Amino acid sequence: MIKVENITKNYGDVKALKGVSFEVKKGQLYGLIGPDGSGKTSLFRILTSLLMPSSGKATLSDYDTVKDYKKIRKIVGYMPERFSLYMDLTVEENLNFFATVFNTTVEENYHLIEYIYKMLEPFKHRRAGALSGGMKQKLALSCALIHKPEVLLLDEPTTGVDPVSRKEFWEMLKMLQETGLTTLVSTPFMDDAELCDEVALIQDGNILKIDTPANIAASYPHKLWKVVTENNYNTLKALDKLDGKISAFSFGHSVHLATEDRVPEDSIKKHLVDNNIKIENIEPIKASIEDVFMELMR
Amino acid sequence: MKTFRAFVRKEFKHIFRDKRTLIILFGMPITQIILFGFAITTEINNADITVLDLAKDNYSQKFKDKISSSGYFHIIKELDSYNEIEPTFRKGKTKLAVIINQNFGKDLINNKDAKIQVITDASDPNTANILAGYLSAIIQDFALNNGALSPPTMVVKSQMLYNPENKSVFMFVPGVMTIILMLVSAMMTSITIAREKELGTMEILLVSPLKPAVIIIGKVLPYLVLSLINAITILMLGLFVFGIPMNGSYPLLFGEVILFILSSLILGLLISTISNSQQTAMLISMMGLMLPTILLSGFIFPISSMPVILQYVSDIIPAKWFIIIVKSIMLKGMGLDTIMMETGIIVFTTLILAVLAIKKFKIRLE
User: Fold this and answer.
1) B18 lies within 8 A of chain A by CB
2) A81, A130, A140, B142: least buried by Cβ within 10 Å?
3) Residue A247 per-residue DSSP state
């Protein structure tokens, strides 16, 4: 459905994309995972025909994003990074406007957005500017869906949205997938990635890895420990001199420590105690996508 | 057509829900016209002057009475010596001083040259000139009536055609109308498009089957309607508050007004294609349009007294031609046949601007 072949994009001397290739099959929920500034937005703009690639080629449903831009603009549902709604129009007016712009009506495709719009219904006479982040996001998604697109492109839809709304949002995407919609979604949150069928990890304009979330997590090459102590900073400093240590990163309240397979739990404990660190808990864990990402970036 | 109507409706909602836009749109024209009409005027009434009367005879008294009764001057002080003149100027109390020579009355009777000296404060040259002009007219009149024995001299009596009382409002109303229409049309359109870019909604509009023409015309049409309402307001104020005559045909006037609004709107579009934020759009329209228009359109400064190069520059400013058109229609009651050239120039520049704007309108983000 979406085919990206060796796309590069330069802004003057800055190389935003350095030869990106991947393919999204029909009906897939595909994640593009990477930190800020990794080139996600540039890629989305190329796919929506808003930017021209410096080299390479991208097609959506076999339409070229440069040559057939007019056709692309009919089949794509796009939600840019910032929720691009008219803040001075009400929820209902926004939806009606975008429906009309795409030559359709809200009634015609109401079934597509029914589930999402039901949550917005009580606020339909409220101006978009007065909605909460999560509500804005739902409205933007409704507006992107109202013309029954074949491909849905969502650029960081969950940035700036509270965790509950984020979870709801992914449930909505899963439901939409059941209607056969192909979705490409970008996000800087690694835990979002686990909900995709397939993910591409992107960093500095390069694709690092493409696989299913499970396979990516399973591909982690080292032994991984979760170490909970009182102070991550001191722990990281102490672990620096641990024999057999490969890497250690702060993960919220704990430290994820990667070691060679030969290192036993006891020697880590002993090392930390020797360095005057009080251990609350230490256990071997399975790697997440974030661990893989950190490993790939190292 | 349905999409177009939806677009225009959305545009009107933007305008009517934004108080700032409404104030600029309707508050500014009215304040401007009233400001220019009442406060900023080149006529001077009751200017404060001083007199040093060295003669102190019948004739000099008659002369002073004539000055006072003219309505243009108000004698605030009679001075006693030359030394007092300069300090009063320095204090800024007066703009002009009249000195009547010792033998004023005697010289008049004896048919000799009676001498009057006029000193003006030329730190404000415009006022100084106008006051000196008024005063010499009074002196001439006085001489004619009192110096009966003087040899006949040539008397020039000029008649102010189309504006018999030489009212500056006649100049300002067409001028202000031009500036307002230009500003509102160009600035507003450029700002609304820049706002869509700034908020990111332009991204969505571009990634939609909307044709650029629909976006452009949809943006322009609401402002065309509102500018027309503005033009009518200004015209009404001019006619009923300032008493400007309307000697020509209304349909012709409104045809020309619509043409001029259109040219300004398209200029605004062109500005919006080169600016990415509302601020830039506003600055460019203010600096790039307002100033040259005010300075070079002949609104305030006569074009004929500008350096030749600037005269050529003024030729490409539609506002200059529009002011000429409005004055021809309203004051002189001219028909289309006499303002064909001016109209043609505006049509021509509008077409050029339209082609440029459509060419520069981007279907992509860069």
Assistant:
1) yes
2) A130
3) E
In this predicted structure, the answer to whether residue A225 has a pLDDT above a threshold of 60 is yes
> Cβ contacts of residue A248 below 8 Å, gap of 6+?
A235, A236, A239, A240, A255, A256, A257, A258
Q: How far, in Å, CA of A204 to CA of A12, rounded?
A: 16
A67 touches chain B (CB under 8 A): no
pLDDT for the residue numbered B158: 63
Model confidence pLDDT, tens digit, residues B43-61: 677 888 999 988 888 888 8
Q: In chain B, which residues have their Cβ closer than 8 Å to the Cβ of A102?
A: 208-209
* Start-to-end C-alpha separation, chain A: 33
Are A244 and A186 in a shared domain?
no
What ipTM goes with this model?
0.80
The residue in chain B having the minimum alpha-carbon distance to the alpha carbon of residue A50 is B364
**% of chain A surpassing 90 pLDDT:** 45
Distance from CA of B328 to the nearest CA of A (A): 43
CATH dotted code for B47-146: 3.40.1710.10
pLDDT for B152: 52
Checking DSSP bridges between strand B96-100 and strand B47-53, what pairing results, if any?
parallel
Mutate to test the interface with A, among B12, B196, B204 (most CBs of A within 10 A): B204
Could you say which of A180, A200, A216 is where a domain stops?
A: A216
Using a CB–CB cutoff of 8 Å, tell me whether B210 touches chain A: yes
